[in-house]
Amino acid sequence: xxxxxxxxxxxxxxxxxxxxxxxxxxxxxxxxxxxxxxxxxxxxxxxxxxxxxxxxxxxxxxxxxxxxxxxxxxxxxxxxxxxxxxxxxxxxxxxxxxxxxxxxxxxxxxxxxxxxxxxxxxxxxxxxxxxxxxxxxxxxxxxxxxxxxxxxxxxxxxxxxxxxxxxxxxxxxxxxxxxxxxxxxxxxxxxxxxxxxxxxxxxxxxxxxxxxxxxxxxxxxxxxxxxxxxxxxxxxxxxxxxxxxxxxxxxxxxxxxxxxxxxxxxxxxxxxxxxxxxxxxxxxxxxxxxxxxxxxxxxxxxxxxxxxxxxxxxxxxxxxxxxxxxxxxxxxxxxxxxxxxxxxxxxxxxxxxxxxxxxxxxxxxxxxxxxxxxxxxxxxxxxxxxxxxxxxx
Length: 393
Ligand code: FEO
Description:
By secondary structure, the chain is an alpha/beta fold. Helix content is 34%, strand content 26%. The chain has two domains: 4-239, Metallo-beta-lactamase, Chain A; 243-389, 3-Layer(aba) Sandwich (Rossmann fold), CATH 3.40.50.360. It has a seven-stranded mixed sheet with strand order 1-2-5-6-7-8-9. Strands 15, 16, 17, 20, 21 and 22 form a six-stranded parallel sheet that branches. Strands 10-11-12-13-14 form a five-stranded mixed sheet, with no helix packed on it. It is elongated, with a radius of gyration of 24 Å.
């Protein structure tokens, strides 16, 4: 794709990665992604904001073919999907300085082997004049690494936010056209990489509140011409109380745990609690992560295997522990053949979760009447707790 103008003297560069289906060898990308870079041409200086993932470097380099000079390469974030092509850009424009936070400088030296003298470190709030355009740098740590920053361009009222506010959607649209689709993709993105840092992201949102923003240009996905849409969504995800909802990741080996899961779903629905079950054999962990943004309670359903939880259930517990969702309650249900330490093992895997553990329901073999009654009781307990807490629908 060619460079595309987004505003006066500002062009989108970058690459659409239509076929990518996994990020960081971990995160599903059902709709591909984009790596957005931006070229800001001032009356005196020119800056390139971020680059692209190295496998698509040639796309960016071809877009830069007719650009006579680059004075600055602004690196908002050291992760290689944005920084990885900086060395090739510097080969073409050896006079360019890499502009970044002091923390990013050391990380880029480590990750890309860049020499110390190519950098221009900028402090929080520092500005760089390009002549008739100004780049104002705002440190915004932990979106989602410690070194991140964003850039505000006051003359055009554009915020270049890198990963912050991004979404993984490969499309030929430059600007957001379908807010519903972007809401889901941006929420998935928030859940997968931003959720553990909600408290500091809230502070970053406060820092941005003073800016008059006409457009937010992230480094993944489309550009927001209605910034309030994504700013309000982030406020909800960061500050919103849990919902009257149970996230129920589960795995069943021979069907007994599945019977328990189905029974619990029915019991919860009867108590007016919404449930989102995720069969871990087939689930998209991005969808599970999104559910964890909202869930008031997490229930892990697992068969017992080799005296402990099924590895897929352990994976879900590990993921939830890493993402640090705001759920207030957790329980474990499942079936075992002869014994084991499923509950102890899973409970030991979630030290980051500030949850009250509700009485687990484990049964030997196929669930009998007393097990089904215990699941009814668990559903009633969850419904009561959610009501006490006033969780939102
Ligand atoms: Fe899009 Fe954290 O890199």
